[in-house]
Each structure stands twice: as C-alpha cells, then as structure tokens.
Amino acid sequence: MKVFVEALGMASCLGPVIPACAAFRANLPRPSPSPDVDVAHPGDEEPRPVTVCALPVATFGFSGVGRLVALACEVLKDVGARVDLRVLGPETGVYLSLPDPWERGLDLGEPEGTETLRMDALGRRVLEASLRNMGLEWSGPRRFFGGGHVAFARALHAAQAALRSGGLRSCLVMGVDCLIEAPTLHALADGRRLKTPEQPVGLIPGEAGAALLLSTGGPAQPPRGEVQVVLHAVRLGEEPHPRGADRPSDGRALAACAEAVLAAAGALRARPLLVSDHNGEEGRAREWGMVLLHLRTLDASLEGLQTWYPSSGFGDVGAAMGAVGACVAVRGLQRGYAPSTVSLVFASADDSGRGAILVGTTAAHPSGGALP
Questions:
Q1: CB 70 within 8 A of CB 134
Q2: In this model, does residue 40 exceed pLDDT 90?
Q3: What are phi and psi of 171, to 5 degrees?
Q4: pLDDT at 221
Q5: Which one of 20, 45, 93, 200 is most buried, counting C-beta atoms within 10 A?
Q6: pLDDT digits (tens, 9 = 90+) for 279-313
Q7: CB atoms < 10 A from the CB of 131, how many?
Q8: How far is CA 223 from CA 7, 173, 219, 228, 245, in A?
Q9: Average pLDDT in the chain
Q10: Sheet holding 92-97, edge to edge
Q11: How far are the Cα atoms of 77, 100, 127, 168, 307 from residue 142, in angstroms, in the given order?
C-alpha cells in the first residue's frame, strides 16, 4: 500500500514551508543575534550575543512549553492553508516528535518519571493547547516521540506502519523544538558546541516546527506544476559507538539504515539526493564522511551524490530536524528542482539513535524539470 504526502507545513526562521524552502534553495539564511543571551569565550574582553535562527515574530515573548505551542500552531496554520483540518476525524492520527522536557528544563508540574511518561505529558500539553488555540478538535489517535534528531523518523516509522496496516487513513506527522532559549544556549556554550567566528566547528541553534500530512486514499490532484510524492520507506537503527564514546562513530549504523530503506524501495529510477542532518559539529562530520564511504562501498553508483544540509538555512532544530529535512526533500521533488526523483533523508541523534527516510515521486511522474 502506497503512502502519499498530501500536504506540508512549516514554521521556521525562513517562514512557512513554501517561502522557507525557496529561501533555502536560494541559499538565503537568516541568522540573527540572540536578544537574551550573551556568551564570553576564552580571549573575549566582553560577552557577545549568540547567533541563532529564530522565528521573526510568532514565538516572541513565549518560553518553555508555550514556545513549543506557538511553533505547533504556526505549523497547523500552514498545513491548514492546503487541507481543511476541520474535516479530519477519528481515522486520522497525530504523531508528534518533541524534545525531552528533562533535557530542555521544562517544568510540567508532574513527577519526572520515565522518558515515555515525560514525552506523553509534554505531548498532551502541546497538542491540546495547539488544537484549542486553532479552534480544532481531533478525535483520532495521538502518539508522542522523543529521540533528538531521530524523533521525527520514529514518528514517521510508526505512522507509516499504522497507515499500511489499515488502522488509519491519514496521519499528521509533526516535529517541533527550540534550541534558542537561555538555558539551552548556556548549556551548548558550556559544552563548546556553538559555532562562532573563532570556532567554526559547531552548530547554530534554531527553532522550528514542520509536518507531513500522509494518506493512503490515493493521490489528490496536486497543484499545477507540481508532482505527487510517496513515502517509500523508513528504517531505524542503533549506534553501538555514539558520539562522545571512547571512539567516534564509524558510520555503519547510519549507513545500514540507508541500505535498508533502499532495499525496501526496490529498484530506483535515479540516484538519490541525500539530505543530511549534519549540523557542523566535528563528530557528525566524521560520521557523515564514514557514511558516504560505506555507501560507495555498497554500490559504486552511490559515489559523488549531491547532498543538501538543511541546518545551513534553519540551524539545528533538535527534534524538528527530521521534519524540516523531510519537508525540504519533498518540496524539492514536488517542484522538480531536486537533482533526482528520490531523496534519502538521514537522522543521527546525539545518543545511539539512527534513522533514514526515503521519499520519491510517483511512477506517474518519473521526472520533472526544474521549475522557476
């Protein structure tokens, strides 16, 4: 059973999904100094603002859970511009990827409990408040996922399984996260993980939300000039030597996820475009280099593939990274400016989680010329 991408939505420093992906394609990033946090690095005479990728308006004045709610509302608004969310009933699920509230220092007013309990508590608060603010009611199943960069891949994997089993007819899979609040920025600075003019090896923190609305009811008529995109496969894995261990990752676990999705999709009509969540940190760079080496060893035709790096335009957006990468990949396929008819999206968490997502155009649209 095919799973179609029916609609996209995004809230980011570059705007909603259509202008954001256009700006990313044109290499028009919009970093800005944090208005709240200054950091002094060794050798600095005085603290300097941290460079971040923040939403220009929507999240201003919000913090903690409220900021995640603001992001989710903007995503729902963007998806709702393409699909009437009010008509979605119990046959539509909501699968939401979020940061671990313990890692973000979010006070939920409840005992800490296990990670699953924390994610459920945060997910319920974010989703219920978002739906209420948007005037929406949703009686379908709801599930919540953590896992950093791999959180969205986990949500997408579960959603695809539910759709293919016939348990659901459609599913909104969404990720939201914010790395630009003061406690997170100070923690990143203390760990020397921030990119600065003096330290080019590092990440730029961001905030974003993004979503894919999936369905099995057959492709709706796409907008003029666009093609239909299918979610081929999602595969998850575990890294036995995550970054920060005694030795860096050798890339085998992430490459195995890519090999698995390629095998699940069968014969491809084109060499895939790669969409990486590499954010500029040294450990991720080493792992990514090893992944490319393993892919070349797997199949000589996979050498020299073009790669997109969404973090260069949106910053590192944590649990929303996979969602942003998937939207960027799908939009490139829809509009025909991706250099392939298939895209392979990678997800690598700070812990052991790994994942890969394969999307592509339908057989009815085997290729598409680049559109203006």
A1: no
A2: no
A3: -155, 130
A4: 67
A5: 20
A6: 999 999 999 999 999 999 988 888 999 999 999 99
A7: 19
A8: 11, 21, 12, 9, 48
A9: 91
A10: 142-145, 92-97, 170-178, 207-215, 3-11, 229-238, 353-361, 342-348, 273-275, 307-308
A11: 19, 17, 9, 12, 33
- Distance (Å, whole) CA 184 – CA 362: 41
pLDDT one-digit tens code per residue, 213-253: 999 976 566 677 789 999 999 999 998 876 654 567 899 99
**Distance separating alpha carbons of residues 38 and 160, to the nearest angstrom:** 43
Helical ranges in 26-63 per DSSP H: none
Average pLDDT of span 102-114: 81
Tokens coding 298? 């797997």
Q: Report H helices in the chain.
A: 17-25, 64-80, 101-104, 115-134, 151-164, 182-190, 252-265, 282-298, 311-314, 321-335
Q: What is the pLDDT of residue 362?
A: 76
Report whether 20 contacts 14 (CB < 8 A). yes
Q: What is the pLDDT of residue 348?
A: 95
Please state the rounded mean pLDDT for residues 314-339: 97
Mean pLDDT, range 91-107, rounded to an integer: 93
Element (H, E) at 177: strand 170-178
Nearest of 340, 345, 370, 332 to residue 21 by alpha carbon: 332
Spatial distance between the Cα atoms of 354 and 341, rounded to a whole number of angstroms: 24
Q: Which two tokens stand for residue 86?
A: 């009010």
Closest by Cα among 244, 211, 346 to 289? 346
| Separation between Cα atoms, residue 183 and residue 37, nearest integer Å | 9
